[in-house]
Design brief:
Blueprint (H helix, E strand, L loop, with lengths): L2 H4 L1 E6 L3 H11 L5 E7 L2 H11 L3 E5 L7 H11 L4 E6 L4 H10 L3 E4 L4 H12 L7 H12 L20 H11 L4 H8 L3 H15 L4 H11 L10
Parallel strand pairs: 1-2, 1-3, 3-4, 4-5
Helix pairs in contact: 3-4, 4-5, 5-11, 8-9, 8-10, 8-11, 9-10, 10-11
Length: about 230
Amino acid sequence: MNKEDKGIRVVIADDHFIVREGLRLILETDPEMELVGDAPDGASAVRLAGEAQPDVVLMDLRMPGLDGIQAIEQIHARWPQIALVILTTYHEDALMLCGLQAGACGYLLKDTSRETLLDAIRTAARGETLLQPEVLARLLAQTSKGRQTPAPPPGNVARSVTLTEREQEVLRGIARGERSKEIAAHLGITERTVKTYLSSIYTKLEVDSRAAAVAKAFASGLLSPPDGKR
């Protein structure tokens, strides 16, 4: 089971057979990808993740029985090295934020292009955060208009969290999908300093990943609308 020989190992979890088959056909066109299994529900996804130990799991959120969010929580808790990517639609903003808080490293729209899908899987397999700026911008706009946003999971509520101005700048960079190198260049600081700010942000928000930090910042109102409209 050498990953070097088999490429990126992927599991698909979706209760719609046609979605699973469509993704399977796309993955089969890329020699770097190896589909090691697919699951029609969350319980099967958790079991398959444990058995196959994939690099990436593509996870639908609405599934019978154990749903996608619960499956993400369980897989992330048991096998944190597995990258979890949410499969979502434009109508699942609240669920998507909960999925990010549960441990997903990012998300993909179900109608995304083949190239975007494959690039996203590679990004996730490298351990990088997968955040699409256009979707995050919509979520931020929704939050700023006072629409309903999901409450953080019990025991995971940000209580009177205060971020410094620099921490907020770093967090906004994450929300734009920037890497540490890009954030450092924009702010005129070193990558090591960016990582120090990230560590502080994680501690204050009680999270362990960039995606979870952004999701919790959305839910608690710490992240304001993007300033790209300046």
